[in-house]
Amino acid sequence: MRITHVLTIGRDDNAVIDVFREIGVELSDAGLRGGPLYCKVAEDDARWRSVAQLLADLESEKHWIGRRIETTFTDEERSAARFLALDYCWTSGYPEPSDITVVPGLRCLPFEVTTYNLSDRCMFCGVGPRQKALFRMKGEPAWGRRSILKLNWVDDELFVRKDRWASVFRPLGVECEPVLHHRSGAPLETVVQLKLQQTASLNLYGVPPAACTACGRQKYSPVCRGPFPAVLSMGPPIAKTREYFGSEGTAFNEILVTAALFERIELAGLKGAEFRPCATAGDQTS
Predict the structure, then answer these.
(1) DSSP 68
(2) Sheet order of strands, 2-9 included
(3) Which of 81, 85, 174, 194 would disulfide-bridge 169, Cβ 3.0–4.6 Å?
(4) 169: which DSSP letter?
(5) 3-state secondary structure of 121
């Protein structure tokens, strides 16, 4: 496991840029001319202690530095895990209708009204919607070499190539639903939505949740550092967590897979998704 800090610095912040250079950290614009500068420093890098002290000093002075943490795992660490959480997924296309005009009085987009039962959804924290209708897409996904995708705006549903569902997921009892062509209403030929039950529960002892001031329900910050929390119980080979994650007005359930399904995904060479090992039972996340 390797933990890396991705830092963002304002292009005109010359004093800070000079200090980073003094400790041997060069900054890049990642090809975005006129945009901010970036750097990546791993915690096992000899420069990390100096960078960490610099960040602490800057933050004590209320100096803004963008920070994001990435955790990378070895193949051996993933193979040894009993459960894994979806860490990254290729995102392509939008649920239809993809109109971005917010529905008056509901603080949500038109596709949410069409696709979800919102009677139990909190309009402030986002917890509680339940799918009531099939998803619609503009057309067949441009799969290329990929077989798994998420739609923009939809964090807790997975869509896969229909043939790959039949060969990889169905043998383990994972069911699916059709996805409709938005204009015609006919089922699309190459894509299906995996049917995911909200059955997995986690060991989140010591991890403080945030409670919504409107509805009182809780959610947790997305996991960026280290393994995903340990699974207490799950059931099917792929499932959603009972717990919600997110920030501000967004809320979603994380998606977990068993080691058996992960092995099938790896052996079949399915592309489009990456997975984070879950901690073992009894471990606690940091």
Answers:
(1) E
(2) 37-42, 2-9, 66-72
(3) 174
(4) I
(5) coil
Residue 96 falls in which region: left (phi positive, over 0), alpha (psi -120 to 50) or beta: beta
Enumerate residues 6+ apart whose C-beta is below 8 A from 52: none
Sign of the CA dihedral with 162 first, then 166, 169, and 174 last: positive
CA angle, residues 175, 178, 184, in degrees to nearest 5: 175
In the beta sheet, which residues pair with residue 258?
83
pLDDT digit string (tens) for 196-249? 999 999 999 989 999 999 999 999 999 999 999 999 999 899 999 999 999 988
Q: CB neighbours of 226 closer than 8 A, spacing ≥ 6?
A: 1, 3, 71, 279, 285, 286
Q: From 124, 130, 152, 154, select the one nearest 217 (Cα to Cα).
A: 124
